[in-house]
Amino acid sequence: MPKPPSPCIGVCKFRRDAHCIGCSMTREQKALSKQAKKPEARRAFVTLVMAQQAVMGGYRHWDAAYAKACAKKGVEVPPRPDAA
């Protein structure tokens, strides 16, 4: 099974208390996401980012961009923790 893509959607502007306005990750989280090599670890990391977005609010634009990246890799989009 292929691993999910990185939660990064290529915006990379850190303005919201050092969180990216595109994906909500901090610089440190972006570095950690690159270390998640196994599909299970990547899915867990994506779920963490989704939960962080739910708490911070204002990241619904990310859903469409991330779904497109998942479709390109042939991977199912993980369900949002707030939708479970």
From TrEMBL:
InterPro entries reported in the protein's UniProt record: DUF1289 (IPR010710)
Source species, domain of life: Bacteria
Protein name: DUF1289 domain-containing protein
Lineage of the organism: Bacteria, Pseudomonadati, Pseudomonadota, Alphaproteobacteria, Rhodobacterales
